[in-house]
Design a protein that fits this description.
This protein has 416 residues and is α/β, with parallel strands linked by helices. Helices cover 34% and strands 19% of the residues. The strands form three sheets. Strands 4-5-6-7-8-9-10-11 form an eight-stranded parallel beta sheet. A five-stranded antiparallel beta sheet has the order 3-12-13-14-15, covered by helices on one side. Helix 4 packs parallel to helix 5, helix 8 packs across helix 10 and helix 11 packs across helix 12. The protein starts with a strand and ends with a helix.
Length: 416
């Protein structure tokens, strides 16, 4: 198969063509989309296992880390994180970004300095970035933000929208919006956040990740989080709900009725002990599925994608919950983070390609159609993003030794 690309898009796909140009040895797939990331959480990897812990003790350590970051340190850390993502098979990432201001909540001279740091880090790493700039106004339902959370807050939905409006897109940078959760945005401001994001841009929200969130929402409003979004006009096709773990049957029906997307992050949901969401039921209801690395405890597009099937097997006690085609569709859903026309090897699509070696100890002897179940990020040999070669023979071409960069920056953060 010969694939021609010009200006970042595929211009021709020709089966049986002579082997000329750059030869991609292995099985070439569309680039994968990381629909949900918190880049700074990467510095928590391997550091949250002491004394067993819970989601809430993990969150306190995450807040401690957040308090140590500034635009310069976040830029250096994120460069390594985004390089790791490309090496793991991702060609785009949706960064669910709520670390906006200086400690205490004081804006930087550039109110979008932290977002600009992420933008530059992604450009350096050669990955498409959608900054899902996140509105975060409360420390819980009816609770004021605490000292760390004040960094996350703009004070009101209107102030948040005004800051985000100053962000400008470019060829490899998109801007979307996010409601952190129904815990962090008061009900009376949900619709204002929704209307503050232009209709052509994606909107995301953490939804029903923890049972405690559902219980708090029911106590305060009498609704499930999904019901609260429905009552406030937020459900719609441009919305992606992240996690969607603890849903009622009615929640599933509503999400399908409004053609909402759902982004599952299985490796993080395992790491935090969140539970297993109803992926098959959502898909059957008409919900579009995508995947994300979330806390970046694992950065591996293949592991995340196959986990949709494997975790659903555990929950249902049945095999064959998803076809390989359905899994690949979920793993390459760039549209969920605003990159329409990316995620397929067809004329006119964005030229994002990931080539997997079929000669490793993991992939040797497999049928190509089984690659999602056998390969790992370590098998990624070549990555092309918007027609530009970013990984060749398993090495990142733009950032030398990302593992050394990550080790240095993470160690420095924890010693500060």
């Amino acid at each position: 198969m010969r694939i021609d690309a010009t200006g970042g898009r595929i211009t021709a796909v020709a089966p049986g063509a002579p082997r000329t140009g750059v030869v991609l040895a292995g099985l070439t797939l569309p680039g994968f989309a990381n629909g949900h990331s918190h880049a700074f959480h990467r510095a928590l990897r391997g550091r949250t296992h002491h004394e067993r812990g819970t989601f809430w003790t993990w969150r306190e350590r995450m807040y401690a880390l957040a308090s140590r970051l500034d635009p310069d340190t976040y830029y250096r850390l994120a460069r390594g994180v985004y390089a790791e993502m490309v090496l793991g098979g991702y060609t785009s990432v949706g960064e669910f970004h709520y670390l906006h201001h200086a400690p205490g909540g004081k804006p930087y001279a550039d109110p979008n300095a932290m977002g600009a740091a992420l933008r530059q880090a992604a450009a350096d790493a050669g990955i498409r970035l959608t900054l899902l700039d996140t509105c975060y106004l409360a420390g819980g339902i009816g609770v004021e933000p605490d000292e760390v959370q004040r960094r996350f807050s703009d004070g009101s939905a209107s102030a948040w929208a005004a800051r985000v409006a100053a962000l400008e897109e470019d060829e490899l940078f998109r801007v979307g919006g996010a409601i952190h959760s129904v815990r962090a945005v008061p009900e009376e401001q949900l619709s204002e956040v929704d209307s503050g994001v232009p209709g052509h841009r994606p909107l995301h929200i953490h939804l029903s990740e923890q049972r405690a969130e559902n219980e708090q929402c029911a106590a305060a409003t009498g609704c499930t989080p999904t019901g609260l979004l429905r009552d406030n006009g937020v459900l719609g096709e441009r919305l992606t709900v992240v996690h969607a773990t603890h849903l009622t049957d009615q929640d599933v029906r509503w999400l399908g009725e409004f053609r909402v997307g759902a982004c599952f992050c299985p490796t993080t949901e395992r790491d935090l002990g969140d539970g297993i969401g109803p992926a098959r039921a959502l898909r059957d209801a008409g919900v579009r599925l995508s995947i994300g690395s979330d806390s970046n405890a694992v950065v591996d597009a293949f592991e995340e994608t196959r986990a949709l099937e494997l975790d659903d097997r555990l929950a249902s006690e049945e095999r064959g919950r998803f076809s390989a085609e359905e899994l690949l569709e979920a793993g390459t859903d760039h549209a969920a983070i605003g990159w329409d026309g990316v995620g397929a090897i067809v004329e006119g699509a964005g030229a994002d390609l990931v080539t997997v070696g079929l000669d490793s100890v993991r992939t040797a002897g497999i049928e190509p159609s089984g690659v999602l179940f056998a390969a790992s990020g370590a098998d990624v040999r070549h990555v092309v993003v918007a027609g530009r070669e970013v990984v060749r023979d398993g090495a990142h071409l733009l950032i030398d030794r990302p593992e050394t960069l990550l080790a240095k920056e993470i160690e420095a953060l924890w010693q500060s």
